Amino acid sequence: MTSPVKAYRAAILHSIDDPAVVGVEQSYEYFEDGLLVINNGLVAKVGHAADLLPTLKGVEITEYRDALITPGFIDTHIHYPQTGMIASYGEQLLDWLNTYTFPTEQQFADKAHAAEVAGIFLKELLRNGTTTALVFGSVHKQSVDAFFEAAEALNLRMIAGKVLMDRNAPDYLTDTPESGYADSKELIERWHGKGRLHYAVTPRFAPTSTPEQLTLAGKLLGEYPHLYMHTHLSENRKEIEWVKALFPERKSYLDVYDHYKLIGARSVFAHGVHLCDGECKRLAETGSAVAFCPTSNLFLGSGLFDLNKLEEHGVRVGLGTDVGAGTSFSQLQSLNEAYKVMQLQGKKLDPFKSLYLATLGGANALYLDDKLGNFLPGKDADFVVLDYNATPLISYRMQQAKTLEERLFALTMLGDDRAIKQTFAAGQSVHCRD
Ligand code: GUN
Ligand code: ZN
C-alpha cells in the first residue's frame, strides 16, 4: 500500500495572523528551503527541510525549484453563472445587471448548461490557485445542484447558494417568497455539510427581494446551524438611493438586512464601498464580513473601498473577485488592483497584508480559519505552487529582487494564472499547468 503521507519541498510562506493586529513581521512564517508534509489530505507539518527530512523515512517528496508554496487562495465573493459574460462593456451596476446579467443568468434554468459552466468555472478557479470560494448561483435551484455536484467531484471546500429574487427583475428570473424558501431548504438538506460543502442563503440584494422574502431568508438562517448569508451591500450610489426609496423606514442600507435578521457570523456582504461609521460598527459587533472586490469596483466605476476604515472598526474583510463584474479570476490580479485602489486614496497595501487577505483573512471572514488559510497542522491541505519563472518578465524581475517582500510584491503585481504551477485540494493535485 502507498503511504498516505506526502511531502513537498520548496520555499514556503504562510500567514499566521493579521498584520494590522500583530505587525507585519509577526504576521507570517517563511521557510526558504521548506517542507510541507501532508497526511490523508490534511497538513501534518510545515518547517525547514533540514529539520523535517530526517523524520520522514520512506516518504515520497516532490521538490520544486524557483517556486513558492502558499495556502490556496480564498475568494469571498464570485458569481459562477456570470463566467461567460465577464468583460461586458460600458455600464455601471444597475444598467449592467439589466443589460448583461439577467439575460445570461436566464440560461441556468437548463441544468445541462449549468453543469457545463460549473465545470469551466471551477477549472478556472483552480488554474488561478483559488481552492475555496463563496459563490452565487442563479435563481434556479438546479444551478446550485450542478455547482455542488462539480465541486464534490473535485473534493473542494466550496460555499454556494441559490439566488433569492422576487421583485425588480425580469419575470423569467424571479421566484416567490415561498418557492425561494422551499427551494433553498431542499438544497440545504441535500448539500449543507456534505463533504466539504456549505450552503449560503443568498438574497441577491435588498432591491430584488420583498420584505416577505427577506423575512423567510432570516427564518432559514435560524433553522440550520452554520449556514452562510451572502448578499451585496452599498456598492453603487444609485443602488443606495434605490434602497432608501424602497425601505424608507430603515436608517441605512445595512439596517435593512439587520431588520430581517440577516447579519451576524457567516454573513458576507460584497463590496461595502460606501459605508458610514455606524454601518461599520454594526458589521464589526455582529461578526459579519465584507468582501473587498477591487477589480469589480473599478470595472463598474463603483468607487474606492476604504480597507483601513473597515479595519479600524474591526470588520472582518476578505478578498473577492466578483466575476463577472470583476475582470479576473486571479487573486494575484485582485491584489494588484487592490494596491492601486489604496494608492488612489493615499494609502498603502503591504505585500504581507495582501497575502493575508487572499488566504488567512479570507478564511477568517468565512469562519473557516480552523480549517483553511495557513499550514497549521490539521488544516485542509489546500495549497498552491507559485512559479518564480512564470514569464520572462517575472523571471527577470525576481532576479533583481533582494528580499522576500520584494518578490512577493512583484508576484502580486505581475502574476496571474500563468504564475500558478500547480494547485492542490485536500492533498490531491487538481490543476497542473505544464
Ligand atoms: N448587485 C446585485 N446583483 C449583483 C451582481 O450580480 N453583481 C454585482 N457586482 N453587484 C450586484
Ligand atoms: Zn457580486
TrEMBL record:
Pathway: Purine metabolism; guanine degradation; xanthine from guanine: step 1/1. It catalyses: guanine + H2O + H(+) = xanthine + NH4(+). Its EC number is 3.5.4.3. Catalyzes the hydrolytic deamination of guanine, producing xanthine and ammonia. It is an enzyme of class 3 (hydrolase). Belongs to the metallo-dependent hydrolases superfamily. ATZ/TRZ family. The keyword Metal-binding applies. PANTHER family: GUANINE DEAMINASE. Its cofactor is Zn(2+). Binds 1 zinc ion per subunit. Residues 69-430 form the Amidohydrolase-related domain. This is Guanine deaminase. One of its GO terms (molecular function) is guanine deaminase activity. Keywords: Hydrolase, Metal-binding, Zinc.
